[in-house]
Design brief:
This protein is mainly α. The chain has two domains: 155 residues, Tetratricopeptide repeat domain (Serine Threonine Protein Phosphatase 5, Tetratricopeptide repeat); 65 residues, Tetratricopeptide repeat domain (Serine Threonine Protein Phosphatase 5, Tetratricopeptide repeat, Alpha Horseshoe). It is built from twelve helices and no strands. Helix 3 packs across helix 4 and helix 6 packs antiparallel against helix 7.
């Protein structure tokens, strides 16, 4: 099949508050999302929501990573007081097992849910990833899609990409390439390389959009310009197909 599979399928939970403490496990696709790109995008979302709190939580997590148990105590106090950034940060502590805390995926999911239920978009995205991977909660594609929708509606760009992937595959939602294309475009227009590549795949195949090699090439080029490997390979395939057949 030309152009291969979609790339960038739901990375394992990379908690959004701090890139350095992201916990990445393999996804079930052939090529997982680069952890740094996704975590950086999510960190921007968190910082945009609550700049001061996010910077403080990042600092506390860095200290916890170095074994500072008092940093975890401070996070816990803030989390118990209802701070959604601290709740997401405490989830990171449990997910990574840092700051003298034993790794506990169920506790990570519980704190992520508290922040998600409070309307914190990065936590909504994290909870979706936990449901997709089955970390701390039973694996559930439908719940993953539900929380991805909330996060996507609240402007989390990786959530828009991953929800589009679920629509393209029909996992947790009915298969719908038109919705997938719309979501990919929303994230692609914001410069998200995975979505630019995936939108190019849809144009190349004519799924959810009118087939257009010109549009496919445009979006592959945008993603390739950001160093996205799958887009670079897709561009090479397009170029090979456009070469005239050798004369016999």
């Amino acid at each position: 099949m030309l152009y291969g599979l979609f790339r960038g399928l739901l990375p394992a939970a990379a908690i959004v508050v701090v890139t350095a403490v992201a916990c990445a496990a393999p996804s079930d696709t052939q090529t997982a999302t680069p952890a740094t790109q996704t975590a950086q995008a999510d960190t921007q979302t968190a910082q945009a929501a609550t700049p001061a709190d996010s910077r403080e939580v990042v600092s506390l997590l860095e200290r916890a990573k170095g074994g500072d148990t008092t940093a975890v105590d401070t996070l816990r106090q803030k989390a118990n007081a209802g701070d959604p950034v601290a709740q997401t940060g405490l989830a990171t502590v449990y997910l990574a097992g840092i700051g003298g805390v034993t790794r506990d995926d169920a506790q990570a999911a519980e704190w992520t849910r508290k922040a998600a239920d409070g309307g914190f978009p990065p936590a909504q995205y994290d909870l979706a990833l936990l449901y997709f991977t089955g970390r701390g909660v039973p694996q559930n594609d439908t719940e993953s899609a539900r929380w991805l929708q909330k996060a996507a509606d609240n402007g989390v760009v990786p959530a828009q990409n991953n929800l589009a992937l679920l629509y393209a595959m029909g996992r947790g939602v009915p298969q719908d390439f038109t919705k997938a294309a719309s979501l990919f475009r929303k994230a692609a227009d914001q410069g998200f390389a995975e979505s630019q590549n995936n939108l190019g795949v849809l144009y190349a195949k004519g799924e959810g959009v009118k087939k257009s090699i010109t549009e496919a090439k445009k979006w592959f080029e945008k993603a390739a310009a950001q160093g996205y490997p799958s887009a670079q390979r897709n561009l090479e395939r397009l170029q090979q197909e456009q070469q005239p057949a050798p004369k016999k």
